[in-house]
Amino acid sequence: MAIDAPPPAPPPAVAPAAISAALTTTNVQVKSDFRGARIVLYGAVFDTGTRPADVVVLVRGPDQPVRLTRKQKVAGVWLNSRPVVFRGAPGFYRAASNRPLEDIANFGVLRRLGAGLDHLTINAPEEQRVDTRYGVRDMVVSRLGADYYDWRRAVVRLKTNAGLYHEDGRGVRFVDRGLFRAEIALPTGAPTGVYRADILLFQDGKPVSRRSRTLTVEKVGVERALYVWAHSRPWSYGLAAMAFALAAGWAASAAFRRD
Amino acid sequence: MDIYLPIAEVAVNAPLIVALGALVGFISGMFGIGGGFLMTPMLVFLGIPAPVAVSSMANHVAASSMSSVIAYSRRRAVDLRMGAVLAAGGVVGSIAGVELFRWLRLLGQADLVVSISYLLFLGVIGALMLRESVGAILRRRRGDPAPPRRDRRPVWLYGLPLKMRFPRSRLYISVIPPLGLGAFVGILSAIMGVGGGFILVPAMVYILRMPAGMVVGTSLLQIIVTSSLTGVLQAGRNQTVDIVLALLLIVGGIVGAQFGARASSRFRAEELRAILALIVLAVGLRMGLGLFFAPEEPFVLLSGMGG
Questions:
Q1: Model confidence at A128: pLDDT above 60
Q2: Pick from B13, B10, B38, B8: which is nearest to B256 by CA?
Q3: Per-residue DSSP letters for B184-236?
Q4: Do B254 and A69 touch (CB under 8 A)?
Q5: Model pTM?
Q6: Pairwise CA distance, residues B167 & A45, whole Å
Q7: Interchain contact B71–A (C-beta under 8 A)
Q8: Across the interface, which of A85, A134, A189 has its CB nearest the CB of B10?
Q9: Are B44 and B303 in contact (CB under 8 A)?
Q10: Residues of chain A contacting residue B34, judged by C-beta atoms under 8 Å apart
């Protein structure tokens, strides 16, 4: 006799895993004593299941076009090549994760998210055009071709040396079950503007939850006033700076007068 | 004690910058040069972006030249009329030079032209000055009589029209050579980011044959005009003058220049020239020889999008 088998039980309703995070500072003020800043990010993973979870934190600063040149030997002398411009390169980039990114997700996923220095999206370069204003005709815009990766690696290397790009496969630490912490170190040369921190939760190599936080780096006080003055009224700024210099020179001469 | 520079957007060690300003100011007051050819490479070496270093340096050069030119004019060692003619040429030259430099930067060849200019001009002038001044020192040591001063001034200097009297310098020459010299120095100063005294001083001695006592004070006058103009142009066109950096340099520079101007009277003229020649040669070789060695890092970030 066949007894109707009970229909297979539906899998228990599992709330999808979620992530939450907050920055200890959301506004970094650049003053005369500014020597970089250290921002702590705290967050928690909410997961009723037991699947292992990985956390990736990506911080991207405001875009800063990069112009670079390569030294080439011409007739025994090292000369600059024509400059190449990378538009859309971030002025600051930091990728932190609880274990190396390659172990967390595959190439395609990382590439799509722009996670890690190898996958950072830096817009394709073009050779800089020359203005006709100065009597030089526009140069032919040529593709960099096979050299592209050398140039791209150079951007990342130079920015990393300046402390502006960083990838840390141990930058996210779980301090308690589900509770994690990461540090974002801003160097003195960090550009001002709005930074965006993406906090991603990975399970089985897939991003399952995402939070975004913004962070503002801005000049304040005298530094801001001078910066704004220099850029909004450059001629009056220049005249004032020079008048001050000449007056200082005259004053010193008067002060040191011995007779 | 570090301080953050609002335009350069880097932090620098304030006492170090002040000391650097004082050192260059001392040299400036002593030799009657702006000192830019020393200051610009040093600031860049300290990590300040080159355009900001060049532009802010113009303020420093103007201040320390101002401070020492007053000391010279009290000793009646400034030919105002000659200074005005040189400066008129310098104004034209530095405006042209700023445009030329912008064009070179668009082409990405500014570095090359700067290196070559340093090697060529500092190298040649340093070598010539060294040869001449060492010769003079040796002659004096041996007790030889000074060689008969070749007063046969170049004929072209006198054949040109537009003659003008320069009573202080006891000269009656055409204004074309000093105008041209001023313009040439103006162009170079915009390209090399210097005041141009290291070219002006020897040119005034050997080409214009001005009395040695007048040369330093008069060249300082020309440097004030050229560097003031450059500083204002740089701020207006490129927004690259960092007033905090300039302030630090000026504090050191004006004090240093006072001591320099005073110290210069304790040395013989040919000894001063020999020391200056060695400094000029060293900087020229340091800047220029980079062209011939393989760079450690073949890629270089260029600062600023505008060039």
A1: no
A2: B38
A3: HHHHHHHHHTS--HHHHHHHHHHTS---HHHHHHHHHHHHHHHHHHHHHHHHH
A4: no
A5: 0.73
A6: 87
A7: yes
A8: A189
A9: no
A10: none
B 195-234: CB under 8 A from A: 224, 228, 231-234
Cβ neighbours around B106 below 10 Å, total: 19
Extract the tokens encoding B173.
């020459």
Per DSSP, A133 falls in state G
If you write DSSP's letter for every residue of B130-192 in order, what string do you get?
HHHHHHHHHHHHHTPPPPPP-----HHHHHSSSEEEETTTTEEEESHHHHHHHHHHHHHHHHH
Q: What angle is formed at CA A101 by the lines to CA A46 and CA B298, rounded to 5 degrees?
A: 145
Tell me whether residues A73 and B294 touch, CB distance under 8 A. Answer: yes
The whole-angstrom distance between A151's CA and the closest CA on chain B is: 8
Hey, is the C-beta of A67 within 8 angstroms of any chain B C-beta? yes
User: B 37-66 residues with CB below 8 A of A?
Assistant: 59-60, 62-66
What sign has the CA pseudo-torsion B121, B122, B125, B131? negative
pLDDT > 70 in chain A, percent: 83
Question: How is residue A117 written in tokens?
Answer: 């220095």
Cβ <8 Å between B11 and A188: yes
Our CA angle for B17, B20, B26, nearest 5°, is 140
Chain segment B145-188, per-residue pLDDT in tens: 666 555 555 666 666 677 777 777 777 777 788 888 889 888 88
A124 touches chain B (CB under 8 A): no
CB A37 within 8 A of CB A28: yes
Write the pLDDT tens digit of every residue in B276-286. Answer: 888 888 888 88
pLDDT, position A94: 92
Tell me how far apart the alpha carbons of residues A105 and A121 are, in angstroms, rounded to a whole number. 17
B71-74 own/partner pairs: CB under 8 Å, 24+ apart = B71/A253, B71/A256, B71/B29, B71/B258, B71/B261, B71/B262, B72/B32, B72/B216, B72/B217, B72/B220, B72/B261, B73/B217, B74/A257, B74/A259
Contact between A226 and B254 using a beta-carbon 8 Å cutoff: no
pLDDT band at A163 (very low <50, low <70, confident <90, very high): confident
Note the ipTM here.
0.78
Cβ contacts (< 8 Å) between B234 and chain A: which residues?
Answer: 238
Best to test chain A binding among B76, B232, B259 (most A CBs inside 10 Å): B232
Mode of pairing for the β-strands spanning A37-46 and A179-186: antiparallel
CB neighbours of residue A1 within 10 Å:
2
Q: Could you say which of A130, A239, A252 has the minimum Cβ distance to residue B254?
A: A252
Q: Which of A29, A30, A66, A67 to mutate to test the interface with B (most CBs of B within 10 A)?
A: A67
Domains, chain A:
18-219 (2.60.40.1930), 220-259 (no CATH)
Here the tokens at position B205 are 């001695």
CA distance linking residue B192 with residue A165, whole number of Å: 32
